[in-house]
Amino acid sequence: MLSENTIKIVKSTVPLLVNAGTGVTEYFYNRMFTHNPELKDIFNMGNQETGKQPFALFNALAAFAQHIDNLDVLKSALSRISHKHTSLNILPEHYPIVGLHLIETLRELLPDAFTPEVEQAWTEAYALLADLCITQEHGLYQQNAEKQGGWLGARGFIISQKQPESEQVTSFTLTPKDGGQVAEHIPGQYLGIKVKPTDAEYMEIRQYSISDKVQTDSYRISIKKECNEPQGIVSNYLHSLSEGSEVDIFPPAGDFYLQFNDKPVVLISAGVGLTPMMSMLETLVEAPLLHSVHYLHACENNQQHSFAKRVNALCATHDKVDAYTWYNKEVIETGIVDDRTMFTGLMELSHIKAQLPIEEGDYYVCGPNAFMSFIKKQLLLLGVDHSRIHYEVFGPHEAL
Question: In this predicted model, what pLDDT tens digit does every residue of 145-155 receive, in sequence order?
Fold first, then answer.
């Protein structure tokens, strides 16, 4: 554990970090990639170009320094980071490299404030953080290896089927190249996929939510073809691959998943954020439903409405399942969803407040960050306790 003096010194540097802003983390990444370019095969370089990763790291550093005397506050964030790290195959030997460049960055950017005493405090603090992450990640790696069908590191998979789900989204069924079983996932979790896109300088790893219930011999992911570079470099490449192509997969990860706690469930998504919701929905309808399941989805129009027919079929065959849809733009084709449960414009939960389990339901939310923030505020205003609101963030973590 850290001494009181070390904690005091680290907490005193919070204003320095805030004043320096994301310039600290931008400098850090430039320094690290210059000295250790091999790490570009692990980090999402698209997030580097857009500034999302430096912004996320800056927030993480500031939060760590502020709450270093109460690590329980950071427990949720550390869990999410550890899951993300296992999907990237981050190993213990990577932590000293990051630590070295962090300390050198602070020394080079803040020479007057980064005294030997401050350097020693931050060195001790980073060692504690690294140990916490390494310990958590070791446990996750062991769990993945010990599961039936489990594995460590990258494993070759074949794209055995491609199925269009909407104008922009295609489902990929992934089958192990070795013909073996796959590790069971918890509905809501994702896979890390490692590929070398055409014309890309480095290997790229991305996370995609599993969009189906547990299968013993395959996974299904559903990917939106992104139009913008560099964010779409991997999704565009995957869409270009034909059935029979090979990709490398890391085991299922993620701390956003179905709780299985015998309560009504509300699944809320926008756009391709419906992928983990489909895994949850397909799982819930497999067992006798004791409580209601409400499936709420928002998208631009019905041409971009993935899994609409499948959700309609589940509603028709399960009396405890219902679905509500919001289209931001005009309906191009009628008959895709029930007109009685379809709305236009932004998702306003007040329209269906009477149907929602406000007092006891668990709410799962996934989509763009602005959408999730919008929904979370509505749920809190409706009286849903924050402990029953669960959400998934794509890419670097940002608070809602």
Answer: 999 999 999 99
